[in-house]
Write a structure and sequence with these properties.
The chain is of the alpha/beta class. It has 3 domains: about 70 residues; about 120 residues, Aspartate Aminotransferase, domain 1; about 250 residues, 3-Layer(aba) Sandwich (Aspartate Aminotransferase, domain 2), CATH 3.40.640. Helices cover about 45% and strands about 15% of the residues. The strands form 4 sheets. The chain has a 7-stranded mixed β-sheet with strand order 5-11-10-9-8-6-7, sandwiched between helices. A hairpin with a 2-residue loop joins β15 and β16. α8 crosses α9. It is globular, with a radius of gyration of 27 Å. The mean pLDDT is about 95. The structure holds pyridoxal-5'-phosphate.
Length: about 475
């Protein structure tokens, strides 16, 4: 059949609406959506015909194509993917995963009325922050705490509260961009604080801060340079020194520590990353950090420190616009409680567990997955090798965590084509490509997903 004849044979929407499968979908979903998918299916066929591809216009094949499109349409747009990149806190793939306890808390709170802003004992209005404040102060040792939408919001709120219309002094070496084009100086500008940059990129001294303090100074700021390191001839002013200077001039010291881990990773053989407890112990008046980076909880910005400053922030009108949702609060409480016992936190919080899991654990897992892959798909070579995982999320940029990976080569596909097809699988499998090999890192993959990955390879093999 030539192209024009095939095109003429394409069925009409009205005709297809009488098909049993289509009627079934109309009954169980939205008619307009079914019609749109029918149109899409026919348009797809028309496109294939015009490109000279072999198409079948048999009813069964057509209906199968339609049903596939319909199922795709019904899937949520925000959906699960498999992270085989080995980047644990992958910002594009949802950062930290919630632990089971946190998920149970979210379910309970979101499906029921709750005491979000209700004081059950007193029988009157309560504070949405009270629920997590107790556990945050307990695990960090802070005097007071509050939480907002994310750490960017926390930076804005802290600066707006402590330094609106005033000057905030910060080292030039700490004016970082954190990805997603979040730039410390820009957020500071939105806060209404005037940024006073002191020192140079590589060296800032205490006198640089001191010489710039005047009657209009509002806060001394220190930003943790999460995602980069300045090496060589460098000098940074410590929190303790800033605190001493702040005391002399009656100025608060605020440290944005970014990742904000509560666990001392040095203990586990990792590079130094400032902990929240340490920053507070050193005397910082206010400290802020992310909920979904190394803490391993939901997206949130956590602010801890002196009660007199935290109280001011709670009363700041901006807080209403930056406020945290009940589901996040529930997840945060469910995460922070685990930190009462570090052993339990490390075991149950996926982010911590993944970062700290030993390379050896992943060898047997790699072997198991390779077995499944070989059984599922021909035309590939699967080889186990050693490589490095990354923490991600702009945290510990230099840390390379030894791991086991599976290196894949396809006989008939280039690596970038294989990467593309795995990504477009029923469940997207996100891999790395390096040296013309597809790399899958076991550290960020779950055993429960091994069959899905095998299915993805089977489908790719069938499609070559
Ligand atoms: C990541 C980061 C932020 C932004 O935190 P979000 O929770 O992503 O909004 C701010 N400051 C520093 C130093 C960071 O590392």
């Amino acid at each position: 059949m030539d192209k024009s004849e095939l095109l003429r044979k394409l069925p009409k929407i009205d005709e297809l609406l009488k098909e049993e499968i289509v009627e079934g979908y109309v009954k169980n979903s939205i008619r307009a959506e079914v019609i749109a998918v029918l149109r899409e299916t026919i348009d797809g066929l028309r496109g294939d015909i015009l490109e000279g591809k072999t198409v079948s216009l048999a009813k069964d094949d057509l209906m199968e194509r339609f049903a596939r499109n319909m199922e795709e349409k019904k899937k949520p747009k925000l959906r699960k993917v498999i992270n085989a990149t080995g980047v644990v806190i992958h910002t594009n793939l949802g950062r930290s995963l919630l632990n089971e306890e946190a998920v149970r808390c979210v379910e309970e709170i979101s499906m029921n009325y709750n005491n979000l802003e209700y004081d059950i004992k007193a029988g009157k209005r309560g504070s949405r922050y009270s629920h997590v404040e107790e556990i945050i102060t307990k695990v960090t040792g802070a005097e007071a705490a509050m939480v907002v939408n994310n750490n960017a919001a926390a930076v804005m709120l802290v600066l707006n509260t402590l330094s609106k219309g005033k000057e905030a002094i910060v080292s030039r070496g700490q004016l970082v961009e954190i990805g997603g084009s979040f730039r410390v100086p820009d957020v500071m500008a939105f806060s209404g604080a005037t940024l006073v940059e002191v020192g140079t990129t590589n060296r800032t001294h205490l006198y640089d801060y001191e010489n710039n303090i005047n009657e209009n100074t509002g806060v001394l700021l220190k930003v943790h340079t999460s995602n980069f390191k300045i090496l060589g001839f460098t000098e940074e002013v410590s929190v303790e020194e800033l605190v001493e200077l702040g005391r002399e001039h009656k100025l608060p010291v605020y440290e944005d520590i970014g990742s904000g881990t509560l666990v001392d990773f040095q203990k586990y053989g990792f590079t130094y990353e400032p902990t929240v407890q340490e920053s507070l112990r050193r005397g910082a008046d206010v400290v802020s950090f992310s909920g979904d980076k190394m803490l391993g909880g939901p997206q949130a910005g956590i602010i801890v420190g002196k009660k007199k400053y935290i109280d001011k922030m709670k009363k700041n009108q901006l807080t209403r616009a930056l406020r945290i949702d009940k589901m996040t609060l529930a997840a945060l409480e469910g995460t922070l409680r685990l930190y009462q016992d570090e052993k339990i936190a490390v075991e149950k919080i996926p982010t911590l567990h993944m970062i700290l899991s030993r390379k050896e654990e992943h060898l047997a897992r790699a072997e198991q997955l390779v077995g499944k892959l070989r059984a599922a798909a021909d035309g590939f070579s699967f080889e186990i090798g050693e490589d490095y995982s990354m923490v991600g999320g702009g945290s510990m940029p230099e840390e390379r965590i030894p791991t086991y990976v599976i290196k894949v080569k396809a006989e008939k596909l280039r690596s970038d084509e294989l990467e593309n097809r795995l990504r477009l699988s029923e469940t997207a499998v996100i891999v790395r490509v390096s040296n013309d090999e597809v790399i899958m890192d076991l550290r960020t993959m779950f055993d429960r997903d091994f069959d899905i990955v095998a299915d993805a390879f089977r489908a790719v093999a069938e499609g070559i």
